[in-house]
Amino acid sequence: MGRLYSIPLAFTAHTAAGDIVEIIAPAGALLDIHEIKLTQSTEAGDAESEQLAFTLTRATGSYTSGSGGTSVTPVPLDGSDVAASFTAEMANTTDASAGSGALTNMWHDAVNVHVGLHYLPTPESRPRCGVSQAFILTLDGAPADSVSIGGYIIVEEIGT
Fold first, then answer.
1. How confident is the model over 133-144, as pLDDT tens digits?
2. Of 47, 49, 55, 137, which is most buried, counting CB atoms within 10 Å of its CB?
3. What secondary structure, in 3-state letters, does 44-98 show?
């Protein structure tokens, strides 16, 4: 087993479709997603109920990374582990695109804004990206109004 890291996603207002997070594997490691947990902090009443759609994508080759977001420092779950070799960005204002690489959708999901997204795959079905590839979690459509989304993603780094 590799090293486990949490990518803490601070609550950020989302008013349009776009990348929630982009996780970029280094040249010397694979990445497995163990868990994704997203919640919101602004939609409290029944009148604000809506469905939010998400897509998990794997980027390969010379894809174009998103830009304009915020770097997120992965936190080792074991306090004695070293810093992660992979990088993460959240809330990019320009979404990742295929460029001369490829974007492959791995899954789509839609959840009620009051319930949030909790993705906890079995060990056999954990998404993996190879060296120098990336995972991109996207909010597929604009919410009816501004929604502050936050949470975490648990990632295993294998091979460093």
1. 999 999 999 999
2. 137
3. CCHHHCCEEEEEEEEEECCCECCECCEEECCEECCCCCCCCCCEEEECCCECCEC
